[in-house]
Amino acid sequence: MLRHAFADRTSVLEIGSGTGQHAAYFAPALPHLAWQPSDVAENLPSIRVWRGEAQTPRLLEPIELDVDQPFPAVQADAVFSANTCHIMSWPQVERFVAGVGKLLPRRRVSPLRPVHYGGKPTSPSNAEFRCLAA
């Protein structure tokens, strides 16, 4: 799905990179993209470890991005975020959408829906999540 969605994109800001495993997986699989991981400061060391192991030139040094703070100036023409909105407070989701809206003012945002296997949620937060596509 991402190959299709990002086929005409050149740079992706990943918001909420967590450990860095998504970035380390997707960046080599989508080599036409500059992949910019981001997260709160305490998660950046883990992202750096995954980045070092991936050894993919288009996987950029992670940057700090906290939706409770102003978004950093980033050059990106796409945004990816997984496993984030359902663990944020509603005001944080609003700031997330507003920040993405300023970065990509003419793009549609649809957060990744919670994961279910065999019709059952994989975690309590996935069970409680109600996705609203924008």
Any descriptors?
single chain, 134 residues, two-stranded antiparallel sheet, alpha/beta, 4-stranded parallel β-sheet
Can you describe what's shown?
There is one protein chain. This protein is α/β, with parallel strands linked by helices and 134 residues long. It is built from five helices and six strands; from the N terminus they run αβαβαββαββα. The protein has helices at 2-5, 21-29, 44-54, 90-103, 124-128; strands at 11-15, 34-39, 63-64, 78-80, 116-117, 120-121. The protein has a four-stranded parallel beta sheet with strand order 3-2-1-4, covered by helices on one side. Strands 5-6 form a two-stranded antiparallel sheet. Helix 2 packs parallel to helix 3 (44-54). It is globular. The mean pLDDT is 85.
Molecular shape: globular
Our Rg estimate from Cα atoms comes to 14 Å
Helix content: 25-40%
Order of helices and strands: HEHEHEEHEEH
Strand order of the largest sheet: 3-2-1-4
What is the terminal-to-terminal distance?
A: 18 Å
**Residue runs with pLDDT of under 50 for 5 or more positions:** none
> What is the number of beta strands?
6
Instruction: Return the average pLDDT rounded to an integer.
Output: 85
Measured by DSSP, the beta-strand proportion falls in 5-15%
Count the helices. How many?
A: 5
* Main β-sheet description: 4 strands, parallel
Sheet/helix structural class? alpha/beta
